[in-house]
Amino acid sequence: MSQPAVRPEAPAEASTKKPALDWRSLLQRYGVFLGLLAMCVVLSFLSNVFLTPSNLLNVLRQVSVNAIIAAGMTFVILTGGIDLSVGSLLAFAGVLSAGLQSHGFLVAVFLPLLAVAVLGVLSGTVITRGQIAPFVVTLGMMTIARGLTLVYTGGMPISPVSPAFRVLGDGYLWVIPVPIIIMLAVYLLAGLVLRGTAFGRHVYAIGGNEQVARLSGINTNRVKTAVYAISGLAAALAGLILTARLNSGDPTAGMGAELDAIAAVVIGGTSLNGGEGGVGGTLVGALIIGVLNNGLNLLNVPSFYQQIVKGLIIVGAVLFDRRKRR
Amino acid sequence: MDKPFVLELTNIHKSFGPVKVLEDVSFNLRPGEVHALLGENGAGKSTLMKILSGFHGKDQGTIRLNGNAVEITAPRQAITLGIAEIYQELNLVPTLTVAENIFLGREPRHGALQALDWATMRRGAVEALARLGLNLDPGRRVDSLSVAEQQMVEIAKALSTNARILIMDEPTSALTQKEIDSLFHIIRQLRGEGVGIIYISHKLDEVFALADRITVLRDGRLVGTYDAADLDHAKVIRLMVGRELSEMYPKVTVEKGEVVLSARGLTRRPLLADVSFNLHAGEILGVTGLMGAGKTELASALFGSVPAESGQILLQGRPARLNRPADAIRAGISLVPEDRKTQGVILNMSVQSNITLPFLQHLRRLMLLDGAREREVARSSIERLRIKARDPWQDVDGLSGGNQQKVALAKWLTHPPKVLMFDEPTRGIDVGAKTEIYRLMGELAGQGIAILMFTSELPELLGMSDRILVLHRGRVAAEFSREEATQERILEAAMGGKADVTTGRPA
User: Fold this and answer.
1) Partner-chain contact A2 B245, CB within 8 Å
2) Whole-angstrom Cα distance, residue B395 to residue A25?
3) CA–CA gap between residue B389 and residue B395 (Å, rounded)
4) Which residue from B305, B349, B364 is facing A208, i.e. has the nearest CB?
5) Would you call B245 and A213 a contact, using CB atoms and an 8 Å cutoff?
6) Do B205 and B459 touch, CB atoms closer than 8 A?
7) A266-275, pLDDT tens digit by residue?
8) Which of A216, A219, A273 should one mutate to test binding to chain B, selecting the residue with the greatest count of B CBs within 10 A?
9) ipTM
10) Contacts of A86 (CB under 8 A, 6+ apart)
11) pLDDT (tens digit, 9 = 90+) per residue, B88-141?
């Protein structure tokens, strides 16, 4: 039924914008990554230890726990939410796995993951059905999970863990520490889910505009609940690695871990309003924090000062991000 | 009418980076006149007004107030100079009271502590409101007011600064006909008091009802300034778009098909009461009513976003349960919502991702999205709807209103629905884009899609509908065929006049 157009085609807007990739847009796009590189270059001059393979692997292994938590946190923040319970969930999974050692490797790994995922679903359900701010709900879950952890352990660490389990923290695949392998696998998977699946797109859509997402037929409650489960799973995985590495389930583990994870996400360029960013940036953000800690240690900067520098970097990175968006 | 100009803008130039948005534009205003500023979106109207109200600096040119050259460098300064602007989007703080809003940023104070002078504020607010013939309690919170009342508060705020120049940018876009009438009354009264009014609107009926003179901009250049009496609709449109619009409403006659959708007694108190109607394939059914008559509520009930409490929806004769939008979309009902920026499109997402959002599950191969197919779907939609975007990856944010609206439509057309609803399909978009939306609407009806158009704009209702339902207080007050419908009969029914056709009769 479409007839020939009744009127001449509107003159195409003269697009004066060229897709030129000048240094500015490069800097804007890869600013955080370039920042990380610059830090590495500077440190390699200031310290002759920094660039050694053993130190670099050490940094990566130290980073892995925070990086894995931050990967899950990225999903939550992309929807415009926040998850303050990850530190406690990490501890809960950690002590659970230590306590379940006698039931064999598989139980000690998968039961804690399952339990914490259920807690994540619980948070997500209260947030969506109860329409309560994620900050409040996960703050509650943070306290609840810490309480569960203390109840389960009686406040004392549980150790030791089985040699098979310890591989998660101490093992090597060829020369690469297992935690690094797990971290890379988590990031590959997370990147694939966010960029390559309908679910990932829905996560971005909800962060972009939840109402539009709902009016586009997306089951926003289900997606939002899922991201808290994912965040819990990631925290639990980090908890297993930590327990394996320490050879002990420590009920006080992961205190403040949520803030380091949020810092990594934010430094990595993901907007706290949701809808923009991704896990690639988060990994770089986690590495920046790790390299900074390592570098300042190598340079014998007292740890009190390290905190100040870390804080400045967090705010500076976001400031940079804000400016480039304008 | 040869009073000296209260305002003269001469040879204004302005560029944003490499883009020239205003080139050699001149504009003037006499006291006590309504001077309409017209042009398609992107013609430079808003930029010109933002230069006048101090939000943007000009690159070249002069601004004279009462013959004296001035430099306006900040919004505050514009206010001091007697220039006030009433924005398209309301600019009030919803949690503050009427009086607090009117005096926001220039609160009267007294005493050594510079404490707020509540009494003066109250009195000033009452005075400012009384000048508009309004009897509002200045202590009420703004969010408890209707949109129209908020608009009046905004005007009162502007007037209380003793503005001699009032800029009104699409002031009626959220108002009902009755509210528009009272706004016009106020505008005429202000004109009588010698206030110069710059009136920006896409609604030409309003422009011709009010304007003494009309200035048209196109692509950042001045087309001309004319006495309103020398122009008519067709001439103005020609000046705005620079070409003949052979027809504003390219209505295509389509053979009416089977009944696709039936509503039976849809009710959701207080705004939806026993609404029944049938909708046929290939038909464009227009639904209108004053603000609060239940248009948006009916659309929400049919789309499942706010389900009806009772009543039945039949799709091709079968009862459909629509409890959420996902149900409706699966059943073949889509909605292009009223407010595209908050409901229609995700502004910080690409054109492509917006278009494919509702039907991503069809673009899966194994677990993953098929990027090539997604690009293909987006590309063909952009082509078909003539969406003007730099590339499919451009954020929707950067598109003009009309193109954003096309994206909000395009997302439903990748899997054509049985029933397509438009809520205020052309609100705030320019004439060229409007006609394109109408053309698409006709084309879709021609493909057998049943179309429900909810609108408060009578010209488009009369121009596009095969049949018209008028709602009044949540009920179907009247039904007209295309031939029976006139502006007067529709308005009468909408305002609760005698219903001249049976009430709530399924056709």
Assistant:
1) no
2) 16
3) 9
4) B349
5) no
6) yes
7) 999 998 999 9
8) A216
9) 0.84
10) A69, A72, A73, A231, A232, A234, A235, A254, A257, A258, A261
11) 666 788 899 999 998 888 888 888 888 888 888 899 899 888 877 778 899 999
CB B195 within 8 A of CB B164: yes
Cβ-based contacts of A192 with chain B (< 8 Å): 368
At CB < 8 A and 24+ separation, what contacts does B498-504 make? B503/B475, B503/B476, B503/B477, B503/B478, B504/B274, B504/B275, B504/B276, B504/B475, B504/B476
- Which class in CATH covers the domain with range B7-241? alpha beta
pLDDT of B498 higher than 70: no
pTM summary value: 0.78
Whole-number mean pLDDT of chain A?
A: 90
Residue in B closest to A203 by C-alpha? B357
Identical fold at B7-241 and B259-494? yes
A214/B305 touch (CB, cutoff 8 Å), yes or no: yes
Helix (H) or strand (E) holding B454: strand B450-454
| CATH tag, A63-325 | 1.10.3470
Alpha carbons B350 and B353: distance in angstroms, whole number: 5
Q: Is B480 helix (H, G, I), strand (E, B) or coil?
A: strand
How many angstroms separate the CA atoms of A317 and A31, rounded?
9
pLDDT band at B181 (very low <50, low <70, confident <90, very high): confident
CATH architecture of B259-494: 3-Layer(aba) Sandwich (3.40)
Partner residue facing B349 (CB), from A192, A196, A205: A205
pLDDT top residue among A142 and B399: A142
B292-310 confidence digits (pLDDT tens): 788 999 999 999 999 999 9
Q: What are the extents of the domains in chain A?
A: 63-325
Ordered by start, the domain boundaries in chain B are: 7-241, 259-494
Quote the CA–CA distance of B362 and B414 in Å, as a whole number: 10
Contact B305 A197 (CB under 8 A): no
